[in-house]
Batch of 3 targets.
Target 1
Amino acid sequence: MKDSGFFQEFEVFSKRSDTSPLQYQFSLLAPNQELALIMAQENFMRREPVADLWVVKRSDIRKMSVEERQSLKRLDNKDYRNTKGYGYLKKKWRKYEQEMLDEKEILSWGGKPSND
């Protein structure tokens, strides 16, 4: 995207603390990067505390092309790498328990108990 006119588009990101992740906040128009940072501070820091503020020229942000995104898709089946948890075990255990023989059933096979 070619810059047209005096103002350029900038994207503003912030961090609430040193350990928190960067979060997108808003876009703004400014003539240069220094003024964009000052405008971001004036607009944003009045509302909430900030540990760090990033201002990036929109034209410097590059996203992946359609072809590049296609290359991210897995070419072969590697579903075994994606964990789904162990929720299926309850169902499997219930089925196993239903197939097990219980003590009463086994004793019933012998007929009447003998009184020796």
Target 2
Amino acid sequence: MTPKLHLQKLSVGTESVAGLAEWHALTRTQTPDGLPRHITRMWPKREAELLEGGSIFWVIKGELACRQRIMRFDEVIGSDGIRRCAFVLDPELIRVVPTLKRPFQGWRYLKPEDAPMDLPKGREAEEALPASLSAALAEIGIL
């Protein structure tokens, strides 16, 4: 299925894709059925498009570094009585070609044609390039 729409979100405080995986492994960050989730204040207005194969692309240390397929959206009512949205995610973190991204608040929609490609098989475990080198390569259009 060709996705119609994706999301991009900063993974605040995360140092690496492995760190994001560790965060998602914590029971308190999971749904009752054991899937990782990210709770946010706003519910996506374009929910139907996101559920047609969309992913959340995680920005880690200034780069789109990986993605997770969006499985569903769950309603969560906080202890303060406020309704929130839980992005329920596939546990698999898929590394993508690192793409520089400036900081932003909340989450943003990401068109499929603007999303970075998945890393080719066998390259998922490679260490990320140093940020300065990655930035220089991106600036000249190589990365």
Target 3
Amino acid sequence: MKQGDMIIYACVIIGAGIGLMLDQAIPGVLVGLGIGYLIKHGLYKDKEQ
């Protein structure tokens, strides 16, 4: 598993946890997924060709 993918999965799980606290799990997962992709893109932007 690539480190960039682990960042996305971690953000999804954190988003799901926050969403469950607010009784909105699915939107929390989607927000976490979006944030995970943004973080991955920001960290690995220079390494991709």
